[in-house]
Design a protein that fits this description.
single chain, 174 residues, rod-shaped
Length: 174
């Protein structure tokens, strides 16, 4: 929509042409009344407004170009977060089994301890996912935003239930 309105519609060249015509008229009329700066001031104010508008249009275009990259980052981090939870759940479950061998227990415990090392990073990932989704859904329809939120909510709920199991396992394995 941005591209159509500001690049393909001819709005920019039309505004530029109007400003050029205004400049021509200001110069012509100022020759008739050189002591009255009113027209020049109005023209200069419109020129400043146009420059501010072009800057805002360019800033918005840059922001819109960043959105697909932000979605890619969000989806990649969400997938990584889910993979970490999968590994953590599997490891916690294995450690709670009573039928595993000593060797398997030690190996799984080492894997668990390795996963726990990054727990703070994953806590920050959960916060980042929430914040980033809020930012990204601001530009979506209510229905699309709701669908994305419904995709994240079960992941966060799963994470919330996993944390106590991790704490119990850390306590038991110490």
């Amino acid at each position: 929509k941005h591209k159509v309105l500001f690049q393909e519609s001819g709005l920019g060249p039309t505004c530029q042409q109007c400003l050029e015509e205004m400049s021509t008229h200001v110069h012509s009329l100022q020759g008739l009344e050189p002591s009255d700066p009113t027209l020049r001031e109005v023209y200069e104010e419109h020129l400043k407004d146009w420059d501010r508008l072009r800057t805002a249009i360019d800033d918005l275009r840059r922001q819109l170009e960043e959105v697909p990259e932000k979605w890619s980052q969000y989806n990649a981090r969400l997938s990584e977060f889910i993979r970490w939870m999968d590994g953590m759940e599997e490891t916690v479950h294995t450690l709670q089994e009573e039928t595993i061998s000593t060797h398997e227990f030690k190996s799984t415990l080492a894997k668990f301890q390795d996963l726990v090392k990054n727990i703070e990073r994953h806590r920050e990932d959960a916060k980042w996912l929430i914040h980033t989704l809020d930012d990204l859904t601001a530009g979506l329809s209510e229905q699309e935003a709701s669908a994305e939120q419904q995709r994240l909510d079960p992941v966060l709920e799963r994470y919330k239930h996993l944390m106590p199991a991790i704490e119990i396992t850390v306590t038991q394995s110490s």
